[in-house]
Task: inverse folding
């Protein structure tokens, strides 16, 4: 039953977790994205380098959180607590970096 | 809803603030290396890329360990737990090698503000990975003793959440610290 869909019940909520083959597919996507990231070190793509790296980083982040950490399938309260911490951290440190004039220094 | 899982998610939310502070500190100080090597001169991107790939794949083996215990397949659960711990150890071995190489090239903890921020950030991450390896090995030993069974799958899931978080943090570190072009001397 290794490739079968696994169903888990928590009280009144039913979650379908992905099959093992799905996990392998997700890992393949993550591996390809990492290879593309590393390729930017060898291939000059000009001024779009940093935006492209940031997009790939965020996509990898969301894939791991949604599929491997099961946020896609679990209670939405877990997502709220995690995203809450993440948004708070980003807001606090964007302000902190601004006070150090980080953005104007490049 | 599992209270233990909720507690882990709250903890991971708070960890975002810890690593956010360390990454921000690094960004502020990465250009201050007058007394030592510059980040762009010392980073070995091909080597760190392999380490990153190893840690990324350990997330796959971790989720396979969870999948195995959920269907009562204890043998494969042990196999994937051990594989995850070994991949984590390989990552830590790579980090020790990297730190040793940097030290030999003149980059100590107090060489410059850049070096202090770099070693603090990557060192904290390494400690998190090491704690994860200890938790994985304790689960592996529990399984060998027969005290980790299908009904304990939530324990594997919660430790898995911690492990995936450590992987997510490295996704950030690898891009922001290593791949975004760094200052050179």
Result:
């Amino acid at each position: 039953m290794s490739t079968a869909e696994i169903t888990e019940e928590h009280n009144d909520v039913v979650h379908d977790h992905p099959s093992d083959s799905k996990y392998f597919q997700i890992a393949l996507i993550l591996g390809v994205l990492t290879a593309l990231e590393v390729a930017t070190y060898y291939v000059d793509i000009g001024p779009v380098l940093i935006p492209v790296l940031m997009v790939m980083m965020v996509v990898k982040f969301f894939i791991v959180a949604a599929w491997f950490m099961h946020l896609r399938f679990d209670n939405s309260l877990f997502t709220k607590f995690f995203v809450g911490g993440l948004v708070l951290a980003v807001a606090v440190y964007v302000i902190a970096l601004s006070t150090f004039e980080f953005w104007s220094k490049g | 809803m599992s209270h233990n899982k909720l507690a882990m998610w709250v903890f991971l939310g708070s960890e975002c603030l810890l690593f956010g502070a360390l990454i921000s500190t690094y960004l502020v100080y990465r250009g201050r290396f007058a007394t030592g090597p510059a980040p762009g001169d010392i980073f070995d991107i091909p080597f760190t890329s392999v380490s990153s790939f190893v840690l990324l794949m350990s997330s796959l083996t971790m989720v396979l360990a969870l999948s195995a215990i959920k269907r009562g397949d204890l043998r494969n659960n042990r196999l994937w737990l051990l594989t995850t711990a070994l991949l984590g150890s390989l990552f830590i071995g790579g980090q020790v090698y990297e730190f040793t190489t940097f030290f030999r090239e003149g980059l100590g903890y107090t060489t410059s503000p850049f070096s202090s921020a770099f070693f603090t950030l990557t060192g904290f991450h390494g400690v998190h990975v090491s704690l994860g390896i200890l938790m994985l090995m304790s689960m592996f030993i529990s399984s060998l003793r027969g005290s980790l069974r299908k009904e304990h799958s939530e324990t594997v899931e919660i430790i898995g959440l911690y492990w995936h978080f450590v992987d997510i943090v490295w996704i950030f570190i690898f891009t922001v610290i290593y791949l975004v072009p760094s200052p050179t001397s």
Remarks:
- Chain A touches chain B through 54 residues (CB under 8 Å).
- Residues 75-106 of chain A form one domain.
